[in-house]
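To: structure subgroup
Subject: Chain for Friday's discussion

All,

I'm putting the inputs and outputs inline so they're searchable in the archive.
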Amino acid sequence: MGIDKYLRQAKDALSGERGRTFLDKAEEAATKAAGDKHSDKIRKARDAADKALGNDDDDDGTHPRR
């Protein structure tokens, strides 16, 4: 059991539209704080988070890449 239970709960809470909304806001805040200088790193982190949460297969254009 241990930490796996909490990781699964976090993943479930952030999957789907709710998770994409959270990640959109986090990406926007990081970009605003760091500026364009680190936008490629922020994009890579966002892509990794989407993949880890299972949100990477929903590229229907409703969440455009910046």
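Points worth raising on Friday:
The chain is about 70% helix and 0% strand.
Residues 10-53 form one domain.

D.
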